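Field: sequence (string)
Field: structure_tokens (string)

Example rows 1 and 2, in order.
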Amino acid sequence: MWSFFSRNPSKEFGYEILEQLTGTEEYMLWKLHKGKKKGYSEPVSVFILDAKTSGNDTQIELAKAALKRLKTLRHPNILTYIDSLETEKCLYLVTEYVEPLQFYLNSCATDYPKSKQQKELFIAWGLFQVVRGLTFLNNDVNLQHNSICLGNILVNTAGEWKLGGFENATPSSQINSLPIKILPSFEKYDPPEKVDSSKLKFATKWSADMWGLGCLIWEVFNGSLKSSSSLKILGNIPKLLTSVYCELVGANPSSRPNPSEVLVICRKPGGYFNNDLVECLLFLEEIQIKESNEKTQFFNKLPLLLESFPENLARHKVLPQLINAFEFGNAGATILTPLFKLGSLLTEEEYQKRIVPCVVKLFSSPDRATRVRLLQQLEHFSAHLLPVTVNDNIFPHILSGFTDSNPVIREHTVKSIISLAPKLNYNNLNVEVLKHFARLQSKDEQGGIRTNTTVCLGKVASYFHPQIRQKVLVSAFTRALRDPFPPARVGGILAFAATQQYYLLNQISHQILPALCVLTGDPEREVRDQAFKVVKGFLSKLEKVSEDPSLRECMEADVNANASPNVTDMASTWAGWAVSAVTSKFYKSQSSQISDQSPALPASTEGPPATSNPISCDTIPETSHELRRTSYTESTDESVQWGDMNELSLSSKNLVDDKGDGDGDGWDVQDDWAPIETVEQDSFGPSMTTARSKDSVLM
């Protein structure tokens, strides 16, 4: 029983009290400490008033009154109350984690080194929040704060400004008697009517706080206020704010505007609050009532706006709003680009917790536009996906894209394997992926998709099981050499060159070189040029072994090697291919609305150039170029020139009617590899222009 009455309540307090933030004593009755809830890592702020140290009953009563008001006031721009504890010795107030505004302003030079614009946006958004908070206090709750100044504004981790310091707050009914402030540092913020009582009859329920708002604006731009006479000097106050500021610090209380009027004036075109950050955050707050076309326009322009936003606001304010919009606001696929851009600011743990669940949910969406957007953005988030998440939650939905009737989705599905291959398990990679690759390479009506399948197969070759790799690669690339689509033949040639370390010397001499030599007489100059270069490389390899048989082991060292960091890096050197079977023009017009019908569009592919150097066991072509749809012309450059292929089709003059199976027994995995079908004869463009492009290279 006695132990019950002798307990120390502070020891049972559910929060750990950490170091004190110094420099706040001038404006606070409390001592501000960092803290956290016991057993959790989430930070909080703990305000402590020591009854014995203060030795002033008035201070204790004011602190208790402030705590009571804060407990009952709930508003986004007022300090958020969490918990409190009162003992004989101390008064504890726990709130969301905040720091004094003065700390933020002093560190702005290091927080926003990129541009002055970030600091300006941070201040504009902060002042907007203060005015909005005062609108709530003065007009809705009928309270006067009476102590608005730099020392009573606190900033949370999201960069939001919060009203604190409610020790001097009074009901609006007491406008004719301003409170006496205990701390002498507040005297310089007293409005003129406190000195000249004759002006009190003109006071309004907001006049005292509007004077305080004027003092706050002056301090934000000019530093700590020494005396009220300094308010006459504008200093660094922006021109967009000067007219409003002058009204706020007017000697006549009745001339000071209502805070709601300040919001209206400053949000007009050309007003101080009329900027991208304020408009963006307000749109996100109201996104539930926005029309779908408004949401689409907003999310399309948001990625560019994010460049100028302060990082803490983007990470802790914009990103949570985007996630909420995704989960509850039916935001659609347009939210993906800004979502992934902001995701780059997160730690790995935060990314797994906040972004990955959104990705998994989106992959299960039946909406085609969403699927295309996800596949297009895959390279930006695939590194954060855990293998178990990929195999169990994502890959089953990706499989359907291989058989989709729309070539855009098929093409992006093929490309997605480049990013996902390192995370796929044995069955998904060596069975499921190869089964669909076999069908696409041999039967897809789009020549570009057939080519891209060959390209992607070469890029992920290092991840296949060695036995599967031995069984598949030669047969698959040999099949590509007989494709009637010229870029597909080029892709097959370069794929052989890029994966040369995976072939036995007997395979090179008996299977690969005979297939390549046929293309030295190909109707297309580009195909012939690449065939000659790669043939020379393989011949050089054989010649070296012939001269020095001890090199055979070195040449065949990687044939049975499993995927390793070095092998992956080597594969990526040839793999800077931007494979795109449908033009960017088509994407811009169709990506947000994909029909079930496959558009009769020409295909495009990309591939890296082969080098003129002989191929050795430790060298791989490193130059990456882009092949898009253009007409075909002879290249005068010694290296491969990848240009745009606009409106490419096949004609009878250039059609290669070759149905041979190329001795590709290993390519017939699961009996799904079939000979290439004869392609319908169309008109083939007379020329192909060449142009280098690195903008769309996928590394």
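Row 2 begins here:
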Amino acid sequence: PQRIYYLSLEFYMGRTLQNTMVNLGLQNACDEAIYQLGLDVEELEEIEEDAGLGNGGLGRLAACFLDSMATLGLAAYGYGIRYEFGIFNQKIVDGWQVEEADDWLRYGNPWEKARPEYMLPVHFYGRVDHTPEGVKWIDTQVVLAMPYDTPVPGYKNNTVNTMRLWSAKAPNDFNLQEFNVGDYIEAVLDRNLAENISRVLYPNDNFFEGKELRLKQEYFVVAATLQDIIRRFKSSKFGCRDPVRTCFETFPDKVAIQLNDTHPALSIPELMRILVDVEKVDWDKAWEITKRTCAYTNHTVLPEALERWPVSMFEKLLPRHLEIIYALNQMHLDRVAALYPGDIDRLRRMSVIEEGDCKRINMAHLCVIGSHAVNGVARIHSDIVKNSVFKDFYELEPEKFQNKTNGITPRRWLLLCNPGLADVIAEKIGEGFITDLSQLKKLLDFINNETFIRDVAKVKQENKMKFAAYLEEQYKVKINPSSMFDVQVKRIHEYKRQLLNCLHAITLYNRIRSDPSKSFVPRTIMIGGKAAPGYHMAKMIIKLITSIGEVINNDPYVGDRLKVIFLENYRVSLAEKVIPAADLSQQISTAGTEASGTGNMKFMVNGALTIGTMDGANVEMAEEAGEENLFIFGMRVEDVEALDRQGYNAQEYYEHLPELRQAIDQISSGFFSPRDPGCFRDVVNMLMHHDRFKVFADYEAYIKCQGQVDKLFMDPREWTKKVIRNIACSGKFSSDRTIMEYAREIWGVEPSATKIPPPNLPRD
């Protein structure tokens, strides 16, 4: 069959033990066996470290995709880097984020198997020699790539796929070549320089930092993986008489490479280099093979996130790849010039090479010209990709552009993290929904069923009690389990607008203070997420959240009607605890900035209601459940564009909205930072004078919408009916559906529902 290669610099896997038991159908047996040994399985599960080899959405999507590809019986491989240190652990000290190294391999990793027999060389630096026999890349430095395999089990189908992560090893003669005669000790110590390539995950989410070590990581995973892919292609017996296949005609029919964002974009010039320089395939033929093999997923439209590497860095590190990129770009621009004669500006806009003080390579443009399919990750995002980000490319080849709305695996994000809800659902509609989430639609028949309403509400209350107990045990914070659990967990970023959430918390606080005898709907506002270590504003936002909490949580007038909690060290294993306990899910990015979001889907399937903007997959969630069953507020993409044309003036909102002005003045005056009154001047200055994400423009609509949330929460029966409606309409957001669309519309393979016979049964 065709093999699928999912290339990603991030796989945010979390813990593996419980997921393995669930997918093998062994959970109950294991629980029972461990109980009989006098142990508690949950205590055991809490000992496992998260595999935190990702930053956020993009890395977690890759992990969900692996689960779905195995469950759908695809011959798929995940390829990435085995970082020695994953995403940092976050500590909060005096209200500030402090990072510590995530030494996740300290006690070993029982799920991985080293495969030294498949170790491969990766070349860097050197120079290019053009000889009559062809092009040679010579005098390179070699780093070895050691593969580590982790099994990826499908759900109860006896399929086990592989995630192969590469680790960097110095060759034994490293720095001990002829020119380095003297210092043997120094040379051995220098092995670290090579091995640093797989040392640490870059902790940036939606931000490009043009560091040479990062470019090395990107080429390292690509070069090792492509050698592996070609080795497997050549040794395959399928439809091939030769014992070793030498003809690459059939390569795209046997191999599909999916690029998870532009991070593995070097796959395109590297495949060209192997085909042309090593395998001696004709250039045009090689280009056709490359394009038919590769497909590219775009994950963001934020300009600061786009990878634009300096040509000078390529010249030094990957000289042959630079030559190939120049040649591909020339071919591409010749075609554009022929179709649009005299349109010089179009050539400039569409070039892979950006001219200027520092010449740069636009990796997104390279991916678009080198792939047969380009997709966005939610319908609204794919439309923006076609109509703005890659508009010129869309006009050139509209058939290339597709949408593949993201999804989440229902195994981890329902069965594993919320067994109570899964049981209540299975009681009513059977277990088919686990591998066909669209079956949740059957729950619409039970929307007025009193016992079902009661059962769903009871499961939510139990999850809340359990999470409250966890918070008290781990962080010594007491919360009111009958309050509304209002949750915003995601990476801290200005575009995600945690600041809007802060302004609502302050507004709520001021309303309680101005009339303490009035009855308020009690809320526990929980905000969690990591800030990139170099992202000053994000770190200030965390300090603001903790400072607001300090004031509100210790004000006797407030009591337990309002609490603001910062959830420390948000990660996959914490998401599995907090999401099933949430009542309200906050998805409040400025319209047009969040490509899709996947946390939004996790909350929906776990029985929280969503307050959100018409952004990313929220749009499709509202379409599936009915807009009246989400709390939708604020500007749409069109409104944001109109406001951009008109000019956004924060001062205007500040002057016309008294509650907003009061909140900003409190932040500004040091009300929340009495020991350092000027603490938040940067935040206030940004909000007032250069807020790209227009927080104030949505403030009034947001506060009003939160009033609607309060009103519904006071009627638990109506609230729970909306919850059931949301769960029933969440089926579209399974990653199984997403992967079926990739398989059929990009990779050209048909998923199979057939269960492989178990190894103890004889095969046909």
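free_text_note (row 2): Residues 354 and 653 are 39 Å apart (CA to CA).
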